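Teaching soon. Got one?

===
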Amino acid sequence: MQLPITILPGDKRMEYTAESLEKRGGKMCSSLAVIPDSGYVVCGIPFTKDGIMVNITTSDPPSIRCFLGMLTSRHILIGGNLPKAVVTYCTNHGIKYYDVTASPSFVSKNARLTAEGLLIPLLSHTSFSICDCKTLLIGYGNCGREIADILQLFTEELYIYDINSYTMKAAKSKHLKTISEQEIQNLSPKLRHINTIINTSPVNPFHTRIWGSFPEDCTVFNIASFSLNVPLPISEQIINCPGIPGKYAPKTAGNIIAKEICEHFKL
């Protein structure tokens, strides 16, 4: 017998996830009070935005502690970027869980959607075309690689910076221009010609001295899930772009989530 699949309300992705899972018994949950006493419980991506409350669009979102207290060993928790404390709680209480973002195929597909969607804010918040972008791409991980693949179709002025020497070698092997750590620390003249910065790094990549070496009108697109600590005046040029797939391709993103769930649990 198929276990019930309850999808907690969230962004548009979750609506399409529910739609995609409907044939397998998936239903969007209108209230936490109606969650069945067993089955799959699909939460948002990320599971939490502030580390305190569950990422859910109800009028009274629960704290993580209260929400976990509603679950039993008959439930299977599904979400994205599950905090360590949540994983520990589930393990200690016999609650099965699955972090969708741990799937390599999800990461790859989501990174592609992020790269495609980034073109919208990139064009909306600059006064020039992508062909005229002189871009420093910080981070050459999953998202960075996908972004580079797209941007290099439009501009030759794309520079990659990553503190990991192996990923820098990977960028060079694809004939991409790079800026080394030494050039960054020495405030290379290259930095004065950058007009767009795209940050994919999970930590603040530069100290104040280095941020100050970029042009004042340089626009910074931050797709990481934290706020960059950047000095004036460049701090006024930051465009935060979290959750790009959910904003610009929610149906595709929702279908990807549903597919990952179905394949993992063989639904």
